Amino acid sequence: MNAASKQAEPAEEPAECDLRHVAGSPGKAVLEAADIRRALTRIAHEILERTKGGDDVVLLGIQTRGVTLARRLADRIADVEGRPVPCGSLDVTMYRDDLRMKPARALGRTELPGEGVDDRIVVLVDDVLFSGRTVRAALDALNDLGRPRAVQLAILVDRGHRELPIRADYVGKNLPTSMRETVRVLLAENDGRDAVLLGPKDSLQGAQ
Amino acid sequence: MKRHLISAADLTRDDALLVLDTAEELAQVADRSIKKLPTLRGRTVVNLFFEDSTRTRISFEAAAKRLSADVINFSAKGSSVSKGESLKDTALTLEAMGADGVVIRHNASGAPHRLAGWVRGSVVNAGDGTHEHPTQALLDAFTMRRRLGDLSGRKVTIVGDVLHSRVARSNVLLLATLGAEVTVVAPPTLLPVAMGDWPCEVSYDLDAVLPKSDAIMMLRVQQERMNAAYFPTVREYSRRYGLDAPRMAQLPEHAIVMHPGPMNRGVEIAAEVADSPRSTIVEQVANGVSVRMAVLYLLLGGSESAIGTPGAGE
Nearest CB to A144: which of B32, B298, B302? Predict the structure, then answer.
């Protein structure tokens, strides 16, 4: 497996970055700020292309980093098309299938744009696509909030290992990983800087 | 491992804020067309009510149902309790039925504590005698926080029958945890003996406290628990400790008027005060469902409880 060799490399990190929450070796940066910026710009254009101008599009970010990514995508689409795109947040904690395996967690905010989701094209946005269970929970949550015309999925990093028949419509980067690795997305708004880190499971707190 | 909610003192400041923040998110569910979350699917919540109750029982039932739990309602009237079954035997019956959560109201102080030692599920105190009623305190704090913002440094006045009031005790404990300054106002006969332990001020003069209050909570005069003459006449009580329109006018502009219900209109609170825009009495009932959803979710939703006291014997 190529993955085994990947995790061995110690990463060089810029001294000023805030990695307090990352224990031990911080892992290797596979995407830097500029890569993330380009990926999001491309996804924004793909969304506009696929939805023919994005008239009915509502962006819904999955808590917490998905919300940040959804806002960035909304800004980019607004720059290109010259009009705002409705953008909201979705907390899927209450719909997760692994709730009983951990202590009850604090809830994030679910905020739908004023227009709601009925009859719209909802683009769910998240940072990492892994097992697909978070997306399944998001689809269930969406089902209780309204009836979109269509639901699409935009993801910054697809790391594989799906456990459910779910795939993304828009992908920032396909990242082959092993189950012994963890992918961690850092975003300036949440973590002080932009990066996607790949490291051994013990050293990084998993994004999913 | 923490798994019961028996006293407001079981909650640390972080626990209490977690409940209030969770309730804030869950309050949104009430505005949706589908007022239901799948979180407690397959879990059973038993409402064990040995004492009459309208809003608390309905509120817990609505909360559990909105989280998709199965709800079994048990009231002492019409059950084997009227044939002389003891609390312990009732508890063992519930245990055999596999209750994940037991919400208990009992006229004996300490009944939920005893129950917690007999059942495997989480026990939530919904009012025990004159001891505590922690979810009422949480919903009161939630209501105050929504109207007044952060509670630290806020001045809350609790007026009336403190001696018989589980609401007063739970509120004093929780509000102190949240950093509010509490003043209790009551005739000396309606104060418990050991007030020195309570984290609050005591006053006998309502008019002196009113202008400094951000929230005033009127307690019900509990005629059913009064087996002695605690005050000369209802009329005299109402004159000295009741909240009427002239007294409400002495409150600061932003202050709110609260009452846990059921009210004795004309005794501790005048009808015009209860129906005024400063009264949060109806709001408190609506908030009760959100707060109880939060408590049930945090106690039963995960592999172990996120708030409350350690389980007995652990």
Answer: B32
The backbone region for B78, taken as left when phi is positive above 0, alpha when psi lies in -120 to 50, beta otherwise, is: left
Whether residue A200 lies inside any domain: the answer is: no
What are the pLDDT digits (tens) for B245-267? 999 999 999 999 999 989 999 99
Handedness of CA B139, B141, B145, B148 (dihedral sign): positive
Same-domain check for residues B289 and B217: no
One domain, residues B233 and B197: yes
User: Which residue in B18, B34, B300 is closest to A106 by CB distance?
Assistant: B18
| A75 Cβ contact partners less than 8 Å away, ≥ 6 residues apart | none
User: Residue A203 domain-assigned?
Assistant: no
**Does ipTM exceed 0.90?**
no
Q: Mind listing the pLDDT tens digit for each residue in A161-177? A: 999 999 999 999 999 99
Q: Which residue of A has its CA nearest to B18?
A: A106
Report the distance separating Cα B106 and Cα B128, nearest Å. Answer: 5
* Number of domains making up chain A: 1
Is A197 a member of any domain? Answer: no
CA distance B35 to chain A (A): 8
Domain CATH for A56: 3.40.50.2020
CB of A109 within 8 Å of a chain B CB? The answer is yes
pTM here is: 0.89
- Per the structure, the complete domain to which residue B271 belongs is given by 134-281
